């Protein structure tokens, strides 16, 4: 892997642990549904009881420092430099698990309350030496079909404004993956061209689980930014072969130049069994290496 994270191993899901760092909320004491198979209706929401604050930060700086310690030995044994990346959920996505109240009457008001907290966390990460940050905003991709995508862009850009130019910024735009289930219509068309104005160097899109629908969209993205293409389906226990991965890389090269492309799983692997996750990643890396070698890269 060219870029690694800590796998978010200390977190409960990619975003749920962050609520434990917030003041001004009353954490949900029990799941709204405790019986039957896992589904979205087992994930409730927290009450807002005061001003949203995070005096201890959101915990990502400690995660990043842990990653630095864990990766130090492994990186020293590689000839090429491996980048360390931190990920932070954006304020719109974080607002989704909070209940509006008189002070924060709707989701956008909650987003505005969370925005300075996320912005401060990004600044703290940069100060700690993090040079690659992904701001996860899957809620924006899930709801772009019914909201104004330009409003999403404005919110996102205000969030990252203090760290633009101080690190490599990316965003992950997927359609949800709670127990393998999507949240919104799995289409990128409603987001573009507006999302081309996001203040990031790279946009990560989910393609494998969608049978590479809208793959042609990466051509437009690549004219303005780098594109990380999801070529591994984290919702399936089919383990993609090396040949599968290589074929998918070649398909992407029909739409975007090699220097604009990187490859990744569709989404995080937290809900994928370890045996499958390991082999999927290994085969992805081998497939990309095969194509690199054939191109002389």
Plain-language structure description:
By secondary structure, the chain is α/β, with parallel strands linked by helices. The chain has one domain: TIM Barrel (Alpha-Beta Barrel). The chain has 8 helices and 11 strands. It has helices at 60-76, 91-95, 107-127, 138-143, 149-160, 217-222, 242-253, 274-295; strands at 3-4, 23-26, 46-53, 83-84, 86-89, 98-99, 132-136, 168-173, 202-206, 226-232, 261-265. Strands 5-7-8-9-10-11 form a 6-stranded parallel β-sheet. Helix 3 (107-127) packs parallel to helix 5 (149-160) and helix 7 packs across helix 8 (274-295). The longest helix is centred in the C-terminal third of the chain and has 22 residues, at 274-295. The model has no long low-confidence stretch (mean pLDDT 91).
Summed up, the helix count is 8
For the sheet with most strands, the description reads:
6 strands, parallel
Q: What is the total domain count? A: 1
Strand order of the largest sheet: 5-7-8-9-10-11
Q: State the end-to-end CA separation.
A: 15 Å
What is the name of the CATH class?
Answer: Alpha Beta
Q: What is the total tally of β strands? A: 11
The average pLDDT is 91
CATH-defined topology: TIM Barrel
Please tell me the CATH architecture by its name: Alpha-Beta Barrel
Indicate the overall shape: globular
- Which secondary-structure class do the elements indicate? alpha/beta
Radius of gyration: 19 Å
Q: Strand portion, in percent?
A: 15-25%
């Amino acid at each position: 892997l060219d870029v690694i994270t800590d796998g978010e191993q200390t977190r409960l899901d990619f975003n749920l642990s962050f609520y434990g760092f917030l003041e001004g909320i009353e954490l949900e004491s029990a799941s709204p549904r405790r019986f039957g198979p896992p589904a979205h209706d087992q994930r409730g929401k927290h009450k807002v009881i005061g001003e949203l604050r995070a005096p201890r930060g959101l915990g990502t700086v400690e995660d990043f420092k842990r990653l630095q310690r864990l990766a130090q030995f492994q990186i020293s044994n590689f000839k090429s430099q491996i980048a360390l990346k931190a990920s932070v959920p954006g304020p719109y996505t974080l607002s989704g698990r909070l209940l509006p109240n008189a002070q924060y009457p709707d989701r956008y008001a909650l987003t505005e309350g969370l925005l300075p907290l996320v912005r401060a966390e990004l600044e703290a990460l940069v100060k700690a030496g993090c040079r690659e940050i992904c701001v996860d905003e899957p809620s924006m991709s899930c709801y772009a079909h019914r909201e104004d995508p330009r409003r999403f862009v404005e919110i996102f850009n205000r969030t990252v404004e203090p760290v633009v130019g101080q690190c490599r910024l990316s965003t992950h735009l997927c359609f949800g993956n709670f127990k393998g289930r999507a949240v919104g219509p799995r289409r990128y068309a409603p987001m573009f061209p507006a999302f081309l104005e996001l203040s990031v160097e790279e946009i990560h899109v989910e393609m494998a689980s969608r049978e590479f629908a809208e793959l042609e969209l990466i051509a437009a993205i690549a004219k303005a930014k780098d594109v990380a293409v999801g070529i591994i389906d984290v919702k399936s226990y089919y383990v993609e072969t090396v040949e599968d991965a290589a074929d998918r890389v070649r398909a992407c090269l029909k739409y975007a130049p090699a220097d604009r492309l990187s490859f990744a799983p569709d989404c995080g692997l937290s809900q994928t069994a370890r045996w499958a996750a390991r082999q999927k990643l290994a085969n992805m890396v081998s497939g990309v290496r095969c194509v690199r070698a054939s191109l002389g890269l």
